[in-house]
Amino acid sequence: MTPILAPRPAGHALVEALVAQGVDTCFGVPGESYLAVLDGFHQHRDAIRFVGCRQEGGAAFMAEAQGKLSGRPGICFVTRGPGATNASIGVHTALQDSTPMILFIGQVASDQRDREAFQEVDYRQMLGPGTLGMAKWVGEVQSADRLPEYVARAFHTAMQGRPGPVVLVLPEDMLTTLTASPVLPRIEPVAAWPAPGSLAQVRALLLQSQRPLLIAGGGGWDAEACRALQRFAENWSLPVGNGFRFQDTFDNRHPLYAGDVGIGINPKLAARIREADLIIALGVRLGEMTTGGYTLLTPPRPAQKLIHIHAGAEELGRVYSADLMLQASMSLAAKALETLAAPPSVPWSQAAEAAHADYLANLESTPVAPLDMAEVVRALHRACGDDTVYTNGAGNFSGWLHRFHRYPSLSHFGRTQLAPTSGAMGYGFPAAVAASLLHPDRNVVNIAGDGDFLMTGQEMATATGYGAGRGKGRLITVVVDNGTYGTIRMHQEREYPGRVAGSDLYNPDFAAMARAFGWHGEGAIERTEDFEPALQRALQSRLPALLHLKLAADVSTSRTTLTAIRESARRRG
């Protein structure tokens, strides 16, 4: 029998419920609408910490990163109205990235509802689920005694099926109401195994194939699932590509790795996908970026035979009419595929070797002067190690990291890539701060553009205040400054050559800015040979550090960006 506890404010009961779920860190910006919860964090400060951030968008990005790193819901608290609208970018990112997350929003008191009271918003309308909504579920807790029920449902919903964000709305007066409601036990998601008959069909389609290719990614993976994926690929000698910004799903050093399937895809890999006679899409949504604007696989019925395996029933058949659809949790899907008996040999073994050779060849680059970003990425890996967490937001600058860094499988070190498939600018830096706070023994490297960084750069204050980058691991931010919104400028120059408007940026001295926040600052670095010594000084400083790199506005990401331009132009005709 669940014990009945002594009455305490519902805000305290909520914090107790989070502790019971194994949460030890929450992110947010304090607000008067949930003061009772903040008091609960004080009451239970030995068991859980509240990281107070400088803006709700940064806090929500930190919680989203927490969800990616842990596989359980990242937690964010914001106040009503402006707080919730600022935080909505993190909800959208969690949805498109299939990341478990719970956003708690303080709300006006119950007796003030529906009057457009101060900062009142109807969050079911604003964030609610739908065909293209932001959250999997939006609930509002009207009764303090039912609060544990709502929290349990939020954890279930965020993790069940395709992981994603949940929003719980907390009326101010409810949080101050005394309740003796119990603390419910830790929630674990229910995992689904593929139907045996469907597994037999997978094997039959593989045996009929001559040119198969597997694309893996999406949310819900754990270390054992990734190990099972590797064993399945090895059993069948399958070439494996990772979906857009899920490059740590399969080890990039493995001889079966074919490359990442996203923006700036290796043209040889794109050709292999188009020429394949069977695509196994494992965990990926097959969205716009992973399908090259729906050109690598043409909807609704692609030229290739398609096996689509996904945790969310709503995703299967949404865009593509596959030859075989399997609903299964990623934690079990790869383990099930591993059981499929492979023949003694397969006709595509040499093609798999060639796919990996093409990937290795794409790692090579022509030296660029005066500052070679490919060499910057290589220097970061040499100095920081295989288990480093890399983060980025959105912009052309990310193409260097995606192309030249070789991510290990998350089965080795856990997540090492935190990047928004939603293309949200400003994501990378708060994600890096969260990773450094949650894993102080690991190095964390954020690569940001100048426009990207200043969207959330104020979270340097959060990092300083909570000691990020001061443990065994280092927190390093590399700001790539070309004085422009580079991606937008690229599109402007393609569509309206020489007619630039709004994409020029006027930047501060980023290194001096970092030093003002108590960081180590290096800059401005304009030559390749100056980068590695500056990085070593940063690592030896025992402070979080920012390295300010200066590039010319017309520097592209070499073939990565040029390929993206060509693909975009081709799709537009």
If you had to describe this structure to a student in words, what would you say it looks like?
α9 (223-236) runs parallel beside α11 (330-338). With 573 residues, the chain is of the alpha/beta class. It has a 6-stranded parallel beta sheet with strand order 3-2-4-5-7-6, with helices on both faces. A 6-stranded parallel beta sheet has the order 11-10-9-12-13-14, with helices on both faces. Mean pLDDT is 93; it is low at 557-573. It has 3 domains: 8-179, Thiamin diphosphate (ThDP)-binding fold, Pyr/PP domains (Rossmann fold, 3-Layer(aba) Sandwich), CATH 3.40.50.970; 196-362, Rossmann fold (3-Layer(aba) Sandwich); 366-572, Thiamin diphosphate (ThDP)-binding fold, Pyr/PP domains (Rossmann fold, 3-Layer(aba) Sandwich). It is built from 22 helices and 20 strands.
Short description:
With 573 residues, this protein is of the alpha/beta class. Helix content is 39%, strand content 17%.
Break the fold down into its secondary structure elements and pairings.
Layout: E1 8-9, H1 10-20, E2 25-28, H2 35-43, E3 49-52, H3 56-70, E4 74-78, H4 82-96, E5 101-107, H5 123-127, E6 137-140, H6 147-159, E7 165-171, H7 172-176, E8 178-179, H8 196-208, E9 212-216, H9 223-236, E10 240-243, E11 257-261, H10 267-275, E12 278-282, E13 305-310, E14 324-327, H11 330-338, H12 349-363, H13 373-384, E15 389-392, H14 398-404, H15 410-413, E16 417-418, H16 428-438, E17 444-449, H17 450-456, H18 460-466, E18 475-481, H19 486-495, H20 510-516, E19 520-525, H21 528-540, E20 545-550, H22 558-572
Parallel strand pairs: 2-3, 2-4, 4-5, 5-7, 6-7, 9-10, 9-12, 10-11, 12-13, 13-14, 15-16, 15-17, 17-18, 18-20, 19-20
Antiparallel strand pairs: 1-8
Helix pairs in contact: 1-2, 1-6, 3-4, 3-16, 9-11, 13-21
